[in-house]
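pinning this so it doesn't scroll away 📌
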Amino acid sequence: MVGKREAGPKRRWRESADDILAAGRPHAWHLVKKNTMSSAQNNLAPIGPRTIKERSFEFAGGNEFPRILLSRDGRVHHLYSSEPRLSFSRAVVLRYRFFLEQKRLAPSTINVRLAAVRRLAYEAADSGLLSPDLAAGIRRVKGAKRLGVRVGNWLTAEQAQALMQRPVVETLRSKRDRAMLAVMLGCGLRRAELVGLKLEDLQIREEHWIIADLIGKGNHVRTVPVPAWVKSTIDDWIAASGIDEGIIFRRVNRTDGVWGEGITPKAVWHVVKAAAKRSGIKGLAPHDLRRTCARLCHVAGGELDQIQFLLGHASVQTTERYLGCKQKLRHAVNDNLGIEIS
């Protein structure tokens, strides 16, 4: 049964979470009518981009807990369940965190979801839907701890050169893909930053090509220098595609024609995977090109603060993780202190 209408003066649409999941529509939040909520609850939204991205919270896993769905416009909706519903409290959020840990999710993923729940509690308390004491208890729930450091993937200069190798038969698609790889490898851009790059963003400052006022993660604005070899690949793509304004990287159809207003970050992932397969590089992801850019800059003698500016990191500790520095025991830094004992 998809849903049923309740009797009474205020008729509501009810749909259990089990019905939605059984029908294979886990994101069918549009079936829950807005009139199932009070006007005060509707004023909760928007909560924020990360909260909207999560879209659903399953507190502590199981039908006995409430299901909360966030629609595309950021509004909070409830999926009614036939099981008894627990109150929104610190104990429920703690069980929710334990449920996420049991699913073996990454600490960063768990912390993002808990941050969304904390924000929900804050907005609910601010709207008078939750007592301040309960909201304070929920906000005191600590996130998951990160134990150890993940092993990153960096390319050597030879591997990066092989990745940028010009194909034997050049097509419009190959020119676009080569320019995208060059921008990620030479400028250290993220996927989302790459797909949003516009022709007007390329400007000249101090006799050098740059990407001006690039808005990155967390709405941080930075300026990214563009090496000459990266600019040449972009020029080849622009000349072949005939793009004179707007988004630089766009779709290419089977007949080698440009269409659409841009590409998706998922398309960038496929481009990197295809290039890695041609070069014989295993396990390469788009973000590995950003790490490689940072390490190659460091190997070439780049200063740490300049690499931080290039990548747009708010903390220098984040930049240090991107460099992937290792302790050199064969050529230790304290071998040549200039001290001799007779």
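📌 and the second one:
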Amino acid sequence: MHIVIDEVAKLRDIRPESRGGAARRPEKKSPCGTMDRVSHQPPDPNPGQVVDESQQLYCYGHPKTPTRLRCSRCERPICGRCAIPASVGQHCPECVAEARKSAPKVRSALRANAPGVYAIIGINVVVWLTQLLVPGFTERFIDFPPLVADGEWWRLVTSMFMHADGGSFFLFHILLNCYILYIYGPEVEQLYGTPTFLAMYLTAGLMGNAFSYVFGPFGVPSLGASGAVFGVVGILIAYLVKRRASAALGNYLRGLLFFVGLNLMFGFTVQGINNWAHIGGLVGGLALGGLMDRKRTKPSPLIASASILAVLVVGVSMILWRTAAVESLSLGL
């Protein structure tokens, strides 16, 4: 049964704003509050760098500490203890705190524009309720390798929308998978668009079930969306790896890697969890993200289609190979 632990890393998206070098006024309002006059010299055109001041500057947070650095966002004088590295220069603690306050609003706006994520969550809930109300529905569409090898290949697709309808993982299974999709899915959907996101989600889910079919125990049924959810996380990891020079995105990447490592370790130590589906979904997501990501622009429809097709070919090839191997064993070859 696919399951994951809820160790959700929070995105803290800090976007520095560089300001030009207009002549300084006696008093100037900044995003962090009122800043008293600290120098008669005009601000440096490259904020966040060492500046040449005729009058010694002192850190606003440590008034006895001389400094030649400024916050690249509000131009406050800051010392090395207060400076927080950013993609451009460094920020003061107040600007960082202000940006963090706005982060939930940004994430809420992302989720408000993620119809694909909500559609998947809605399908998961409807299918789960059907499992509870219709006898035999789960057995008809669950992933069961012997039946897949016998020609019921659709089980590899339908099982990624099904969840536990009893046992120790009852309710927890679907809630956790949908919550993680709700956290990370909107970011991927905004990056690549709804149609591409849906295709990537299905492809990663199929790759997860292909890994389970090839490497997992042959006579054990499984179900769950966590393979596809791991694929979404893999796509996001591939995106962040290329932008890890940014302090904020680098921290976000480390949080995601910790989340993945913790869940894989949990899957290997707790019985009843199909960790091969997690690994396969993650591999599929990393492949999709690596092939499709363009650092400055969205991938063209041709690149997106070719990338998805390439990963699908690998997954389908694994399924066909495993099916042929099972048929050979059954015939005594």
